[in-house]
Amino acid sequence: MVGLFSVTILVLVAVVAGTAVGIVVLRIWRRIRNRRLAALAAGPRRALLAFVADNGEEGSEDLIAIPDDAWSAALPAALGLLGKLRGDAHAALVSVFLHRGAARAALTDLHARSGVRRARAAQLLGDLELREAVPELCRLLTDRDHEVRVVAVRALGRIGDAKAAWRMIASLDDHDPVPSLLATQSLAQMGREAEVVLSAALDHPQARVRAVCLDALGLIGATGAVSRMARVLADDEVLDVRVAAAANLGRLGARGALKPLTDSLDPPAPDLLRAAAARALGDLGAPAAVPALAAHLDDGEFQIAHEAAQSLRRLGPPGIAALRERDNDHCREALALVAPELVGAS
Amino acid sequence: MRDYVLVLLRGADYAVLAYFLALNSSYLIMIGLASVEFAKHLRRTTFTGADDMFRSPLTLPVSVIVPAYNEGAGIVAAVQAMTALRYPRYEIVVVDDGSTDDTFEKLRAHFDLVEVPRVVPSEVPYESHVVSVHVPRGSGSLTVVRKTNGGKSDALNVGINLARHPLVCMVDADSVLDPDALLSVAKPFGDDPLRVAACGGVVRIANGCKVVAGRVVDVRMPGSWLVRVQVVEYLRAFLMSRTGWSRLGGVVVISGAFGVFRRDLLVQIGGLAHDTIGEDAELVVRLHHYLRDRGEDYRVIFVAEPVSWSEAPSDWKVLGSQRRRWHRGIAEILTKHRHMIFNPRYGRIGLVALPYYLIFELLAPFVEIAALVLLPLGLWADAIDVAFAWRFALVAYGYGLLVSLVALFIEEVSFHRYPRWSDMLRGVVAAVLENFGYRQVLALWQVWGAAAAWRGRPAVWGTMTRTGFDTHEPTPVETVGAGK
């Protein structure tokens, strides 16, 4: 047994020493690599900053002429700028990337074996806002790798081509779907051109798809979809979807939303929906909602009375007058926030 | 009879050795899993979409709840730093838990607070009385609540009631968050909103680090060896271990110093428990309990970066009090949820995570002390000889040293947070000290803490003497205690 212990100790000493040496070697290697990369990237970084400072009007030839190894070292900075820039500067930097063959390489990488490479390529194509890449990115919506699908959705949103809307909606009806919030954001980025597809998808059998489309319609301000959204608010079989319909009808601020929202304030609508309707009426901004909201200031459900009071506050003078006529905790709380020194503290 | 005792002693020594080998092997497995996770994380940094999340109007808003008890010296700086976090929409709810110092006065003076009438719902039960609610004149992201003293759990429950957003982040008043910390820890909720129930962030030690305007700008090893040892211990036991558990789907501890939860779930499970001192871990175990009972498909996640920085005890007395409290918490939680342990109904939590905590967390200090007794006893009784004894000790503790060094190595590969050579050297020495001396002293306190739980002694938080961060400003020494 002692012999076994001795061997074990020797092995332990060797591994401990090896680990310690590993730490030292790693540090030295990291330092050398970082110094080399910093030296290589210094010039391109300066050129990039000057290019952006000139709004992309001058210096593109310099960037295109940078040797490949130096460009690779400066690539993180260039990609960072690409994601942040908008307008002319973005277009000019995109042109530099295209001249350097980045789009071609990225389109090839969309077929790479590695999920990380496919995702990186999709991210770059999105940042380049390359419309030609839309069909290929749509194909990635059914990629085997969840992360790749997520990046594809984000890239399609960044490109903002409404032709991808129906494919994206279809990808939500999957056993491992992309995140709803991300899909909503991307669909909203496609703008009013996607309204027809989104509106039609309110009849989709999947509750999740309906909820995403409602949010996207609310975000793009699709006032033409009010009647369809009102129908979902009244009739949908899933409570969360009805709540989403209420919130987005309020967000749209259209006159046609007043009646369906007011109708949802009372039972038999579930409490969660009633509270959402009370909040949405405040967002709607229609003074005509005041009587209906005032009638709920003493509601037995905390959230409904609370939301009604806060919505009345947001509706301005007519709502505040209604709050002053009542004397309960919710009204006092809402009225306190109307005080000049607290405007903005809600 | 003597032969029988000798055989027994020798057998016990081997059992202790086997336990140490199993314990350290389990650490190595966790470090292995964590390193896979870190590699995955690092390869994906270019397409995580954090910037998109920051810009999206749909990013879930967060209520950051900060319980504070006698935090007068640092509360203004802490809240200032939190107001500068990079996150699209969030509010800060500071709950002054009946402080007897100038915590509230400092907040009132600095943020120009005015009292507002506010209806405090009772969705989550709390035992104290809310005295008043205050908001800054003309700006909306901060709410300060004054209440009678009721303990940290009670303060957090009041904060949950007042939280207006769907996600609730619990942060200690003395924590310094990295600018992107909230964005990172809330991101899993956006990525998988239907399943993610809670997400914890890593807590690192801030002693010795340079803090400017509420940000850690220069990471250094602390000056005290006691804290340096804790740095290595945090790396191995918290960063690596919890990341490993996250990969296994078995996270049962999210530190109260930095964690995000879905508010609706906190309401459904009744918020934090008042009857345990390890309220943060108990909350997570109860969340598992609740969601498993309902057959829900859910995830509890741990993210390794960015981080919350916290001050660690720099003297033995405070450290002892902290570790007694932590171990008492483990004992209370495992006792309270004992029917989950080895219960297949609770999946990986019941069959893997909780049994692990029972065998390798709760019982570890008992075995450690048993080793300290049995080895000399075996020598004295001639059950083992000296050659066996020193080799035995070297194998048992040398393996522990190896585990700590591997943790340092993985930290170096993945995050490289300590760039100075001297700091890394100190880390290596601290790894030695952790295994030869520190662990043994710790075991005594831990046994004491567990015994207090089982004897039903009243829970005492004790005091935490803060020396403040290296801010290049005079930092007063204060004495604080959270809660009762």
The coarse overall form of chain B would be globular
**Oligomerization category of the chains in this entry:** heterodimer
- Shape of chain A from CA axes? extended
Query: What's the number of domains of chain B?
Result: 1
Protein name (chain A): HEAT repeat domain-containing protein
Transmembrane segments (chain A): 6-29
Keywords (chain A): Membrane, Transmembrane, Transmembrane helix
Pfam family, one (chain A): HEAT_2
Description:
Chain A: The chain crosses the membrane at residues 6-29. Chain A: Keywords: Membrane, Transmembrane, Transmembrane helix. Chain A: It holds the Pfam family HEAT_2. The complex is a heterodimer of chains A (346) and B (484). By secondary structure, chain A is mainly α. Chain A has a domain at 254-339: Leucine-rich Repeat Variant, CATH 1.25.10. Helix content of chain A is 71%, strand content 0%. Chain A contains 20 helices and no strands. Chain A has helices at 2-53, 60-65, 68-84, 87-99, 102-109, 115-127, 134-140, 146-159, 165-172, 180-189, 195-200, 207-220, 226-235, 239-252, 258-263, 271-284, 290-294, 302-314, 317-325, 329-336. In chain A, helix 8 packs parallel to helix 10 (180-189) and helix 12 (207-220) packs parallel to helix 14. Chain B is α/β, with parallel strands linked by helices and 484 residues long. In chain B, a hairpin with a 2-residue loop joins strand 9 (210-212) and strand 10. The longest helix of chain B is centred in the N-terminal third of the chain and has 42 residues, at 2-43. Chain B has a single domain (20-362, 461-480), classed as Spore Coat Polysaccharide Biosynthesis Protein SpsA, Chain A. Mean pLDDT of chain B is 88; it is low at 473-484. In chain B, the strands form three sheets. A ten-stranded mixed sheet of chain B has the order 3-4-5-2-1-6-11-8-12-7, sandwiched between helices. A two-stranded antiparallel ribbon of chain B has the order 9-10. The interface between A and B is large, with 52 and 49 residues.
